[in-house]
Amino acid sequence: MKKIGLKIGISAVIFSILIVLVISKHTQSIDNFGFATIHGHLLGPDTPWMLEVTYAASPALWLGLINIIILYLFFVAKRQGRALYLALWLDGAIIIATVVKTIVGRPRPIHQLVLDHGYSFPSIHTLTATICVLMFLALFKTHNVKYYLFALVGVLWIVMVAASRVYLRNHYLTDVIGGATLAYLWTNILWYINYRWLRIIK
């Protein structure tokens, strides 16, 4: 419990700092570093697979898939507690991120390679990818080689999604960091609630 509390505290501080920096418009150096690194050093000028990554990580797609699983658990498997917990995990995170987007009201970067609408901070693509990876790791935790291999692949997937959003100029670097941090914060809050009171997932 103390370890989870520490994770909540650290991620809450990081996310709060990001919000303050974004609102006060003090993220230019960080965000310029993100654009310069991804466009100038990591990727060439023509990287079509970045578009495929951002499409594959569509929040609508993963929201639909996870909610189909949730409906199965609720109505067929009769595991209503787990179904509602998973719904709160993903759907709740997206709702929170949407509220934060509206409150912060950060415009998206200019010169987008693929047009996207709405506010920029935090990145819901990155948040959704992080939540899904953390969800699968938590539900299928076995501490064997396959688990750690999946964890590595999951982290690489989150990085790829975040990089694609910055590469396409749909988000700033601080947006994708904010999305991943919010996902980690929300996950640990739910884990705390689970261990403290619910015991739905062991």
From TrEMBL:
Residue spans crossing the bilayer: 53-76, 83-104, 124-140, 147-166, 172-193
UniProt organism field: Periweissella fabalis
Limits of the Phosphatidic acid phosphatase type 2/haloperoxidase domain: 83-191
Keyword Transmembrane helix: yes
Lineage summary: Bacteria, Bacillati, Bacillota, Bacilli, Lactobacillales
Claim: Cytoplasm is one of the keywords in the record: no
Pfam families named in the record: PAP2
Protein name: Phosphatase PAP2 family protein
Keyword set, alphabetical order: Membrane, Transmembrane, Transmembrane helix
